[in-house]
Write a structure and sequence with these properties.
Its main location: membrane. The chain is mostly helical. The protein has a single domain (about 5-400), classed as Ammonium transporter AmtB like domains (Ammonium transporter fold), CATH 1.10.3430.10. It is about 65% helix and about 0% strand.
Amino acid sequence: MKIDSGTTAWMLAATALVLLMTPGLALFYGGMTRAKSVLNMMMMSFGAIITVTIAWVLFGHSLAFTDNPSSAINNIVGGFDALGLQSLVDTATKDDGTGMPSLVFSAFQLTFAIITVALISGAIADRAKFGAWIVFSVIWATIVYFPVAHWVWGTGWLNTMGIEDFAGGTVVHINAGAAALALALVLGKRHGWRKEPMRPHNLTLVLLGAGLLWFGWFGFNAGSELAVDGTAALAFMNTQIATAMAAGAWLIVEKLRDGHATSLGVASGAVAGLVAITPACGFVDPWAALVIGLLAGAICAYAVGLKYRLGYDDSLDVVGVHLVGGVIGAVSLGFLAAYPFLPQQSEGLFYGGGLGQLGLQVLGPVAVGGYSFVITWILGKIIDKTMGFRVSTEEEVTGIDVTTHAETGYDLGTVYASGVTSANAAAPAQNQQPAQQKPAQKKVDA
């Protein structure tokens, strides 16, 4: 088939947008951590870009999007027809009528795999060994993400049954959220959790990261149509609608519950809305996107507090936002789906559909979440028992940026308790006290 230049150009742009989301996530997560571990947090996202890209080229695309010669095994994982992506180079376009080069589709799907792995890192901020994280990212992508992508988007068992997941609510967010919960349990609580303040150190970075995520998500959702058409436009608009509604709903909950609407709240609410609309964006009417956003913003605002009641230390609320938000979006399709993507799929209950699709939309999160949690817990335990997954208490208290990377996120120079700094040391003499009258200065760390 001849290459469709319009579709190809759009998909190249969408791929770049989705890749930008991972540096955006690095800023979002980095700002939410304490200053002494901001670089480590961001490095975990960039590490995922490196490791998942290599794994995807070698075997990841093949396991996710090719067919296995054994029909029974094909329900679980793909085959080996695209190892090294060479077969995609030899194939001009996909055989699905889109007119898109096969390599463009592969690059687009690669960016989804990258950010799914990176999302998990937020649950173990401040305390994970960087080397252990690198090993985990490769193995987890191989035995969890690639098979799950095959189940839902390839020719695996959930796709065959007719589950709906337009852009990754199940494959990405529920998958990552369940893994985040398992890994948080394996590594345990941070030193001083619930006893020391662990507030975000830089809310400016958080808002910048949230803005980049919001921007990139248009490629994430609208690009998942793999075409330039009305469904892509619907997915684009629904993404904006649900995100704005969720951000507003989170702020209302904060105001009523705590008396303040915060910048962290608007950023977290926006991400919750983005997560929830992801599986549904191309399948629901705009009014339904408002409902999904409202539910996601309000429910996730309360869900992030579950860690205090249940006693698990999910550092940056991956479970409360991505797992819970993903479930809201996936299950909502059982009620609100209006545009069946495949002939065997049905509309939601509110559009005359039966209970069958609702059952599938519940089965998907349970199956993917359960598989991801169990395999991640086992993998985390193995890594912890062999090479160790958590840094020592001394390294954690000192800060991983210094102990692991020999760097600090901020070099503000020397600050003096008297208020005299290098910036005002050169002030005119008449504005300074005589040398003999200066109070003793005591150095403190920046």
